[in-house]
Amino acid sequence: MKKEWPLWEVFIRGQHGLNHRHVGSLHAPDAEMAINNARDVYTRRKEGVSIWVVPSSEITASKPSDKGPLFDPAEDKVYRHPTFFDIPDDVGHM
Amino acid sequence: MYAQMVKSDGPSDAELSPEERAFQARIDAGEKIEPKEWMPEGYRKTLIRQIGQHAHSEIVGQLPEGNWITRAPTLERKAILLAKVQDEAGHGLYLYSAAETLGVSRDELFEKLHSGKMKYSSIFNYPTLSWADMGAIGWLVDGAAIMNQVPLQRTSYGPYARAMVRICKEESFHQRQGYSIMMKMARGTEAQREMAQDALNRFWYPSLMMFGPSDKDSVHSAQSMAWKIKMNTNDELRQKFVDETVPQAEYLGLTVPDPDLSWNEDRGHYDFTQPDWDEFFEVLRGNGPCNEERLGARVKAWDDGAWFRDGLNAYADKAAARRLAAKTAAE
Ligand SMILES: [Fe+2]
Ligand SMILES: [Fe+2]
């Protein structure tokens, strides 16, 4: 038998209630072992309180060539940021 | 270094294509290259060789230290060494994952290591004869690795750079635990002090060899540096290592085994003796003191674990089939 263990993407949530973050990938025969391995590989120094694993083959990624159409439209919409608007100091904190 | 004398496949003197020129411009601008993006075939191949060799070094590098886990002098030292060696396994895994994003599988890389087609660092072909060697390895070998890995956090290939950030966070513990062993030994009994000195004597030149021979005139290095997958010349890093390490040896009251070592006021650096490069090439050729033993242990672990890997696969397949059957029955 010569079958490589499938690849999993690992996501960890740290101590302080932030989102799960992608930390890397690993090989494991199934989801349960992927979690066990992720514990050993990615949380040896208390980096997390929760682990997600997802088969890498299940990830759909945007194409590098779509960078322009996807992200350029945000470029000229600076008014989405609060600093775009000048509010006089007299108004106080806003 | 952990990746020594990596051959790079650059475009020779031929003209750069428009794609290659745009690629180089991105690198010059400090942009990261990510897995699915266009890259020259030479960049991809060179990186696979370099990251693969680096990963192999982390994995094989566990062996000389693993040798002493059961013989550590105290339970605490044993737990620390175990944690250190476990980190190295992790470093190997991060790096294999980074290599895999370039379209090579981990098993392919293992196969190349086991068949001798790919190398690991020359340093791990030296024996570990006493407990002081655990000190010397952490202090000198991990110390030398850090010299090279810190700048690689800024390398152009995203997954490689991210793996390096993770590794560097853990590496400083390795060096300090080694130095702490050296301090203990150097201030211990006369016999312990002698062991510490002996370990330094044996590991000094092999550590200098880790950076590889001078490459200031090497075409491969020039290409790799243009691609930012090599950040400094071997000589620069070696000099930096000597400059930082000599005072640390003095603090321990140990003597660096180089009678010509001296501070050069004009250069602002230490002058030192080069290691024996013939020995280095012999070790690379497979004729070091422990090449056979190291690769043998690695291949044996892989072969002996085959039934276990297959068993877990069979279990996973069976569980998946059972889940599928239950789902179909429910529909
Ligand atoms: Fe390491
Ligand atoms: Fe290390």
From TrEMBL, chain A:
<dbReference type="InterPro" id="IPR038693">
    <property type="entry name" value="PaaB_sf"/>
</dbReference>
<dbReference type="Pfam" id="PF06243">
    <property type="entry name" value="PaaB"/>
</dbReference>
<dbReference type="InterPro" id="IPR009359">
    <property type="entry name" value="PaaB"/>
</dbReference>
<protein>
    <submittedName>
        <fullName>Ring-1,2-phenylacetyl-CoA epoxidase subunit PaaB</fullName>
    </submittedName>
</protein>
From TrEMBL, chain B:
<dbReference type="GO" id="GO:0005829">
    <property type="term" value="C:cytosol"/>
</dbReference>
<dbReference type="InterPro" id="IPR011881">
    <property type="entry name" value="PaaA"/>
</dbReference>
<dbReference type="GO" id="GO:0097266">
    <property type="term" value="F:phenylacetyl-CoA 1,2-epoxidase activity"/>
</dbReference>
<dbReference type="InterPro" id="IPR052703">
    <property type="entry name" value="Aromatic_CoA_ox/epox"/>
</dbReference>
<dbReference type="InterPro" id="IPR007814">
    <property type="entry name" value="PaaA_PaaC"/>
</dbReference>
<protein>
    <submittedName>
        <fullName>Ring-1,2-phenylacetyl-CoA epoxidase subunit PaaA</fullName>
    </submittedName>
</protein>
<dbReference type="InterPro" id="IPR009078">
    <property type="entry name" value="Ferritin-like_SF"/>
</dbReference>
<dbReference type="GO" id="GO:0010124">
    <property type="term" value="P:phenylacetate catabolic process"/>
</dbReference>
<dbReference type="Pfam" id="PF05138">
    <property type="entry name" value="PaaA_PaaC"/>
</dbReference>
<dbReference type="InterPro" id="IPR012347">
    <property type="entry name" value="Ferritin-like"/>
</dbReference>
